[in-house]
Amino acid sequence: MNTQIPASAAPLISTKNAGIEDARRSVKFHPSVWGDYFLAYNSHLTDVLTKEEREHQRLKEEVKKLLEAVPDDSLHKLDIIDAIQRLGVGHYFETEIQKSLRYIYDTYHESCGKQESNLHITALRFRLLRQQGHCVSCDVFNKFKDRQGKFDESLISNLQGLLSLYEAARSEWWKALEFENKLPFARDRLVECYSWALGIYNEPQYSHGRKMLAKVIAMISVIDDIYDIYGTLDELTLLLDAIERWDLSLVDQLPPYMKYYYKALLDVYVEIEEELDETGKSPLIHYVIEEKKRLVRAYFQEAKREYSDYIPTLEEYMKVGKPSSTYLVFISSSLTAIGEFVSKKAFEWVVSEPLILQGLEEIGRLMNDLVGFGFEQKISAVGCYMNQHNGASKEEAFAEIQKQVTNAWKVINQECLRPTAVPMAFLKQVIVNLARVSHTMYKDLDAYTHSADKLKGTITLLLVQLVAIP
């Protein structure tokens, strides 16, 4: 689908619409901190040479020998598995890691008694086993608590143990769209979008999936700014109607700036459909598109609310706020990239909104609202709670919402230990990782919106700076 937008549609602002422009809301976002940096990484620079491939294979064999040489009942085995997974190469050693953790799980009651005073080992074992889907009780930490149920103050000096406890896209495409010029009000964050996808699945076999998911996230980011900041209610109604009907011929009913977005959006989903068609699963694109429609309906409801004087209760707010968290769009789009999980049954499971997905949506919505309070001039969970509880303080609202985030995490952890209609690997690979990325993006500040402050450094460490191999 390569239909060109007429040149006559190019001007973003016309004299006729000058009054409308004056009435628009406005937020000043900093420009992309990356520019064309990653365009320098052409395909010929990323091809793995035969010599490098042999070296990679040699290193993998060395690590595999190390894994096999260290006994499963050795405490050092836990540290090795942890290091491998942290480096993002755990997928090369899934069989060995699964076998070792199965043995450790089967014998952990006995080993816990031997290391009962070692918080680091207890917490590390607990986390690795839970991540693998083994049901391990939180009671293993009781030995480190006092009579009041609080962790013993003597642990303050045990930094390693506390840390273990605490832890218990193609740039050319974006550049060609010219959104920076055609939609200058929107955030320019393609590299940051890719970092979302990278946090969900980093394995080499999902390289194309990451690129597609980054495109989906970029499209979400732009339409979020259209509904949050720039569009008038009449314009937003037109865009919602066009997305509900999902037909390129409707592009002419849209304002000029929306035409560019609408065409680009449909092109992205055509690309996803073509990928699904290669495996005979193109009809499943229906589910992916429906989640996008559901998201835009939520955006529209939020926009209408901003034009009224009504402040909803927190419960009322979350009925729209959870769908607008965007995460079910992430999940449905992620499914298309993981071939072994793509099925009608899996998509029907997403549509049913099981508890684990509700918990994911709550985390995304509430974490975003906490860091956006004060900067984003719109109704949020914080403001709704304060208004609902007779002028409760900001601190009280934050405490309550943080508690709800914690409870949502408990739901996710609990649901990961129960059989579901989708494989456990998908729960861990996509859902849990997406919740983790949320904490990275929305811990202390909105790192996505204000990426120059924090996220730039994180991405530099991940994608730019080399890891030295001794």
Report the uncertain regions.
1-19
Helix/strand structural class: mainly alpha
Instruction: Indicate the overall shape.
Output: globular
Outline the biggest β-sheet: none
CATH topology of the largest domain: Farnesyl Diphosphate Synthase
CATH architecture classification of the largest domain: Orthogonal Bundle
Number of DSSP strand runs:
0
Provide the β-strand percentage band: under 5%
Provide the number of structural domains.
2
Number of helices: 22
User: Under the CATH scheme, which class of the largest domain?
Assistant: Mainly Alpha
Rounded to an integer in angstroms, the radius of gyration calculated over CA atoms is 24 Å
Give the fraction of residues assigned to helices: 55-70%
How would you explain this protein's 3D organization?
The longest helix is centred in the middle third of the chain and has 24 residues, at 207-230. The chain is mostly helical and 470 residues long. Residues 1-19 have low confidence and may be disordered. Helix 11 packs antiparallel against helix 13. The chain is 62% helix and 0% strand. It contains 22 helices and no strands. The chain folds into 2 domains: 50-166, Alpha/alpha barrel (Glycosyltransferase), CATH 1.50.10; 170-464, Farnesyl Diphosphate Synthase, CATH 1.10.600.10.
